[in-house]
Specification:
Structural class: mainly beta
Shape: globular
CATH architecture: Beta Barrel
CATH class: Mainly Beta
Radius of gyration: 15 Å
Number of domains: 1
Length: 169
C-alpha cells in the first residue's frame, strides 16, 4: 500500500499563510479516539483522488496516539493507508498535536472547533490555510450542520469554495 497521510503529512509543503485558529481547550483524548470520517477537505497531493477516507486515533500505552489513515483509490482500485504517531504539543487538554508518518518530521494537527457535548464533528487545521478538514463520526452530516461548519472555516480564514466533499460510499 502507498502512504496516505490525511491531515498529518503537513511537513512536506510550505505554509500558505496562517489561519485564524486556536486549538480547543478542555480537549478529551479518550472521547476523540476512534474512527472519524472525512466529510470535506482542501485539496492536497496526499489525498488526491481518494474517497471513503477515514482516520482512526488510538491512545498508545507508551504515550501519544497511533494514527491510521485510510482512503479508497478508484483509479488504482485499492486502499491506501498510512500509520503514524501523534503527541500533544503541550497540555493534553488542548487540541493541538504534532504528528509524524516519517520520523523525524512532524506536522501540526489543530482541532479548532469541536462538538464538545458528543464529539460527533471536528474542524481540523494543519496550521496553514492550505490544510483544512471537516471530520465526523458518521459518513454524512445534516446539511444545516455542514453549512455551519463551513461558515466556521470561512471565519477562520479558509476559502470554502475550494473544499472537496468526500464521497463516503
Amino acid at each position: 500500500m502507498r502512504h496516505l497521510s490525511l491531515p498529518l503529512m503537513l511537513f512536506l509543503t510550505g505554509c500558505a499563510g496562517d489561519p485564524n485558529v486556536r486549538p480547543v481547550t478542555g480537549f478529551d483524548l479518550d472521547r476523540y479516539t476512534g474512527t472519524w470520517y472525512e466529510i470535506a477537505r482542501l485539496d492536497h497531493r496526499f489525498e488526491r483522488g481518494l474517497s471513503r477516507v477515514t482516520a482512526n486515533y488510538q491512545a498508545r500505552k507508551s504515550g501519544g496516539v497511533t494514527v491510521r489513515n485510510r482512503g479508497w483509490s478508484a483509479k488504482k482500485r485499492k486502499w491506501s493507508q498510512a500509520v503514524g504517531k501523534a503527541y500533544f504539543r503541550g497540555r493534553s487538554d488542548v487540541g493541538e498535536l504534532k504528528v509524524t508518518f516519517f520520523w523525524p518530521f512532524y506536522g501540526r494537527y489543530i482541532v479548532f472547533a469541536l462538538d464538545r457535548e458528543n464529539y460527533q464533528w471536528a474542524l481540523v487545521s494543519g496550521g496553514s490555510k492550505k490544510y483544512l478538514w471537516i471530520l465526523a463520526r458518521t459518513p454524512r452530516l445534516p446539511e444545516p450542520l455542514l453549512q455551519e461548519l463551513v461558515e466556521k472555516a470561512r471565519a477562520a480564514g479558509y476559502d470554502p469554495s475550494k473544499l472537496i466533499y468526500v464521497e463516503q460510499e
